[in-house]
Amino acid sequence: MQYPHRLHRFARKPLVRAMQPLLLGLSLAAALPSAAIAASLEIGAESQRQAFDIPAGPLEAALNQFGREAGVLLSFSPELTAGRQTQGLHGQYGVDEGLNQLLAGSGLHAVARDGGYSLQSSGGAIEVDRQVVVGSRAPTSISELPGTVWIIDAPQLQEQTKGGVPFKEALGQLIPGLDIGPQGRTNYGQNMRGRSALVMIDGVSLNSSRGISRQFDSIDPFNIERIEVLSGASAVYGGGATGGIINIVTKKGEAGPARFNSEVGLRSGFETSQDHDWRAAQSVSGGSEQIKGRASVAYQKNGAAYDGSGDQVMLDITQTDLQYNQSVDVMGSLDFAFANGHSLSLGAQWYDSGYDGDKGVDLGRNFAGLRGLEPFEIEGGASFDREPRTERTQFNATYHAPEVLGHDLYLQAYYRSEEMAFQPYPSISFTGTGAINPSRSYYSASQQDTDYYGLKAVLVKEWDRFTLTYGADIERESFDSDQALFDLNTAARTGGLVADEYAKVGRYPGIDTDSNSLFAQGSWRATDDLTLSGGVRRQRTNNDVGDFVAAAQQIQISKGNGTSADAIPGGEKDYQVDLYNFGAVYKLNKAQQVWANYSEGFELPDPAKYYGQGTYSAAPVNGRWVLQKGVNVKDSALDGIKTKQVELGWRHYDGNLDAQLAAFYAWSDKSITYNRTTLLVEQLDNKKRNYGLEGQANYWLNDNWQIGTSALAIRSQQKIDDRWQKQDVTAASPSKLTAFIGWRDDHTSLRLQGVRTFNLSDDGNVLASGQFDGNDHKIDGYATFDLLGSQVLPVGTLNFGIQNLMDKDYTTVWGQRAQVFYSANIPADLFDYHGRGRTYSLSYSVEF
């Protein structure tokens, strides 16, 4: 990379040196990509054509060569060119013409100002010659993939997050097929194309056999280099990807002297003194071409949040909240380059996000609020022996060896350990007089722990027109959980604000899951314009479920009602499934492709919430609870669900217009539902289908103005009595529309964006018989707008934003779903989670 105006950079060093102790001491964070550096260009250079012979390969190296040979200095950030390829440049070209040719299909364009050139992202998520691994397990150009692929670069993501848009909501804004994100800790229901997504960090799955939806409570955006997305059912990375794959790629070190990136930010709606969130982060990277690394820490502290009416948003006691939350993300990486092209990449992360405050929901004295006698209020004095938290430790090592028996070899070993604790939750039964029935009531909070490790091996062999990718995956997961029980009298006296633990019992059965897979994927360039691909994955999974005394009986024993209980038998269940895919991509021209594909995905839906349910004797017999009937592996094993999908798509990219559109149809022979009373999983033999359109179009009106829109139009249905009925609103995805208009130059950017989620309804609750009860539910759609901007300063960059610009008061999609889930025995007001009102954000970032 070449840096113009080098004298100006050196001239700022005394100021930078003076600021370093302050910046480091404050632990500022999140590196903004280097501000575009003005370029100098000899007058009349474009009128002179010259010969170039720049080979295809990494874009950054090609740009550097072009700059040297053309006698120009180019302005671009390494983050913009990372992972991008070029077809090269051969022949006679002027500067403008040659530069545009070199950038073709890269997702970047050149802007000439002040006699110079700077590079900017075209702002779209499609770049046809960009290489990704999400679609085939090995680096592959998007133009060769028969599927819907999106790339979210660091500049795109940082424009959102530095402007104050939370991570989950930013993803919903930037990924067309992904639902709008909740504003609490959970991302439950944030589906892709109406089904669950497999979320990974650097190729390591964050999904677990226990379906806890906290995959996006896993990393600070400061540490993200890009996000690769494959929409639709896929078995490329194993189970869980029935709706798509989201691979979060983390930032790595860059060769050269130590580079520091810092950021500090503040977010507030200015309703009260507690209405503020602030964050700070710091990273350092550097090294040589042989060894380079990066270390970072990102910290965020949240206060209270208020809705569009000025009322505090109700704390989520079901899936836990992010108000009064503190998060720390510590990450490090080392990259080694050895002789003959061999390389080793090591990564480690510790992430801790949990409650840090003294406020909680006052449920009323003697839980009167649960009877509708008192309103729910957020009060001080909260003290919980178990507090909601997500703590995760992750390690991974990736080794690449070229020319192993004529193959490229990729090896990855990984380990992930996480503990997820929940909010104290009331399960209270009242007598006819309104008094608490202590024998049938309890106040509790669960914790669910997972250890996950494995090994992946991929071999890639290329011939002239054929590429074969094959290998094996080995992985193991251990799941365990418990439930802390709190003193009921203390909880009743304080309205649930004080939770003193007196016992700990089991929550779900322990489950060990072993999975071994073999896969092969082939790609054949039948002609220069037509590529055919296909593959198969054979996956064998073993579930070992432990014996388990039902949670309700363990609670009774803790109260002194009985001394023992029969265990619901565990056991082992093997699943073997073959998953296929095939597709074709046809290049209409250099800017356009059309494709068609068929693919399959597989999931095992939440075995921990399926097994371990039982019916016991009405009272202990000689002190022992006698099991009468239970859900166990031998008698009622849980079936896996295979999802099949067909898709037709088109994409176009020419530097000005970035567009992609796909029609999809996905179906499966089984489905699951959640029992509204027990909140456990029940499996149905009903068929399920999702179909619709997913698309995006972004267009540069000129060098400064860009407009864009994206949409997901979807319908989700289940087959009941040979008739297709609407799927339950707790699982179906609403349709979505986004739009934006943006303006930018080398120093300033502005973006006005909006998102609209549409109404969704169903035909009522699904009974065990598979019938609907007729009590239909509805999710009301809403629209919100954000204004985002940035200004490059003499030192650093200022980002600002206004979220929910119109200060709309609305209940989030998750808030409306939670009322369906949990309001069978508790007033719905407790789960009426509103969206945050108008909120202002300001952040400052600097690189030195």
From TrEMBL:
InterPro entries: Beta-barrel_TonB (IPR000531), Beta-barrel_TonB_sf (IPR036942), Plug_dom (IPR012910), Plug_dom_sf (IPR037066), Secretin/TonB_short_N (IPR011662), TonB-dep_rcpt-like (IPR039426), TonB_sidphr_rcpt (IPR010105)
Single GO cellular component term: cell outer membrane
Superkingdom: Bacteria
Region forming the signal peptide: 1-38
Membrane topology summary: Multi-pass membrane protein
Subcellular location: Cell outer membrane
Keyword Iron attributed: yes
All copies of domain Secretin/TonB short N-terminal, residue ranges: 72-122
PROSITE patterns (alphabetical): TONB_DEPENDENT_REC_3
Metal-binding found in the keyword field: no
GO aspect biological process, one term: siderophore transmembrane transport
Keywords per UniProt: Cell outer membrane, Ion transport, Iron, Iron transport, Membrane, Receptor, Signal, TonB box, Transmembrane, Transmembrane beta strand, Transport
A Pfam family this chain is assigned to: TonB_dep_Rec_b-barrel
MF (Gene Ontology): siderophore uptake transmembrane transporter activity; signaling receptor activity
SUPFAM superfamilies found in the cross-reference section: Porins
PANTHER family to which the protein is assigned, alphabetical: FERRIC AEROBACTIN RECEPTOR, TONB-DEPENDENT OUTER MEMBRANE RECEPTOR
Family according to the record: Belongs to the TonB-dependent receptor family.
Protein's name in the database: Ferric aerobactin receptor
